[in-house]
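Troubleshooting log. The previous structure file for this entry was overwritten by mistake, so regenerating from the original sequence record. Sequence copied from the archived sheet and checked twice against the printout by T.R.
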Amino acid sequence: MKKIIAIFLLLLPICAVANDNPLPPLSPRVSIFSTTTDWAALTGLPLRQFTGNFSWTNSDVMRGMVLYYLDSFPCYGEADSVRIWLGPNRQSEGKLRLVCVHAPDTISFAWRNATRDADQAESKGILTCPVTGDYELKIDISKCVRGPEWKEYK
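Regenerated output below.
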């Protein structure tokens, strides 16, 4: 047992020297944790829950459109309710629930065309939509403006 401990103690300095010059990482580490700020504390305004109700025509969404809400003041999306699929014939899946300090005038989504059960894939770009209503927000997809595609951002 003493020999094992002695060998272990001799190996410790070797391990320490070996780690003095670690190799740099192959790619930078990126944090995917939320940077959401406590807007209620910063503004002194209470947070309230808002829901989004969409209207669209078959020509607005064609075979289907997936929307991913993009957090921005005065709202952030609740984790389980920021992905919405809109499809032909008034079919939809998902519910938009936001926590806001006041009702927004516009909201933005990352979007892509997809059928209902399509796997998550790269979105096209930003879709900015005017919003009406108060606690029940009304979003008319035909009034939304498509921004540039992601590849056009620098």
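The CA atoms of residues 106 and 130 lie 4 Å apart. Archived copy saved in two places this time.
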